TrEMBL record, chain B:
Signal peptide: none annotated. It is found in: Cell envelope. PROSITE patterns: 4FE4S_FER_2. It comes from Anoxybacillus andreesenii. This is Formate dehydrogenase iron-sulfur subunit. Coiled coil: none annotated. Keywords: 4Fe-4S, Iron, Iron-sulfur, Metal-binding, Repeat. Residues 4-35, 66-97, 98-127 form the 4Fe-4S ferredoxin-type domain. Gene3D superfamilies: 3.30.70.20. InterPro entries: 4Fe4S_Fe-S-bd, FDH_Electron_Transfer_Unit, Formate_DH_Fe-S_su. It comes from the Bacteria.
Amino acid sequence: MSNFLNWSFAWPANRRNLYNRASADLNGKPWSKDRIGIYWDAAQGKWVGNDVPDFVKDRGPDDPAFNSPFIMQTDGKGALFAMMNEGPFPEHYEPFENPMDNSFSSIQLNPAVQFGEKAMNAQGDFSKYPIIATTYRLSEHWQSGVMTRNVPWLAELVNNMFVEISEELAKEKGIKEKDKIIVSSARGEIEAYAMITKRFKPYKLKDKTVHHIGMPWHFGYKGIATGATANRLTPHIGDPNSHIPEYKAFLCDVRRA
Amino acid sequence: MADYIKFVDVTKCDGCRACMVACKNWNDLPTVTEEYSGSYQSHEKVNAHTWNVITYNEHTTANGGFEWLFRHQSCLHCVEAACEKACPEDAISHTKFGSVVIDHDKCVGCGYCTTNCTFDVVELATYKDKNGKEYRKAQKCTLCTDRLEQGLQPACVVACHTDCLVYDEKETVLAEAEKRLAKIKERFPNANIYNPQGIKGTTTVYLLADKPSVYGLPENPKVPLSQVVWKDYAQPLGKAMFGATTMAVVGAVIANAMKKDKGGHEEGGRDHE
Ligand code: SF4
Ligand code: SF4
Ligand code: SF4
């Protein structure tokens, strides 16, 4: 561990790593030769090394407090601060609807996920809804658009609900530029304009080729600019900790209107 | 006064369109809602009430790569301005800021400027007088000359959050542009500074990420000689001999003929294909 103790100054004692006593083991020796923080020099009877000791300077292995290096905790011991509802460590879980098995864990979905109303949360199966969808915002509109879709100069810029699809998917489904399409999920369906773009591409997921579509969720039925509501399609489940709903990944199908 | 220009570095534009809203806001322009275009582009091109438009082009590069190219499209304020040369009423002129402006007291709505503009960015707006009679006036970006006169920057420049749009001393801006060009060449080998010398340069200068034709801009625009002759010789002479009205009629014939040899749009095409 390199510290540049003469470079600038770290308040309050020019110490660069808090609890640096923990960089040495119970005999006061560095855990690793390559990363020496501070260590106990028995000959001198004090802590020396690459930092200002964060411990009483002349208290060695014989001292009863030697094994309590976290001096700002009442018990002097280290602790994890982990308030997540699904366990102490974050783990990868897959979305509620998903074409893939979880490669990182035998548990597919976060077990602490919070469900909204049952009726809004039918789960679609990949065999029936083989396309991945996502929703997002645009710079011209804000949230569900109730304000911005009523501002003429903003409504003029994004006046229609649209769904972005790849050239490959358009070809497969016989969809042409400016066609209206129907997007369906286990929860509902909407009609919107197709926006055929090079910016969406099918994914190769292990042995499967999976299409991906995207759409804004700013539209609604009243205002200067109106259009179908993307949240007719999304599942209404919340992250166990932030309660943020899972509107970014779900399954759907697409056909020409 | 040092020369100032508006500079558009399209490689910094993120397509947010704050410039479009700022322009309508400052100039109090009504909406012109167009049919769904099939892309993010809101208007096919600038029009009489929409003085700048962001064009969106999903471009496949020569080596098969992909670039989403944006351009803030508006009047370029040509030093040799075809619109000015075409106008039979002397309604179009250059200000001390280098901007090309239309005097609406003089404009009769004949539309010669619209047919002759090198970049197709001036259009006729239709209004009604108090008796319900329709009349027309040519409209386009003014470079916010009214703001410049008050020591303010153009409204679109102030709104732009990426410094894609800047308004500053010409020498400084062009020197910066050269540096920026060198920096982006690796990603955009065809990048260039668009300040066409065939029309003696422009007061809105672009840094383009690809060839002008990719953006629907003429590669080497010129004001046709016939048009220069028309403005600088035939018009003054004609007016002296036949009076202004006759000259306007003669002008219609000539303007249409001139439109054919405007030239330069070889590979142009629509910006947002
Ligand atoms: S871009 Fe067109 S309208 Fe603008 S100054 Fe040039 S010729 Fe005139
Ligand atoms: S310079 Fe002024 S008039 Fe021209 S596009 Fe910008 S805001 Fe509109
Ligand atoms: S405000 Fe600037 S970044 Fe936004 S669209 Fe206009 S030029 Fe581009």
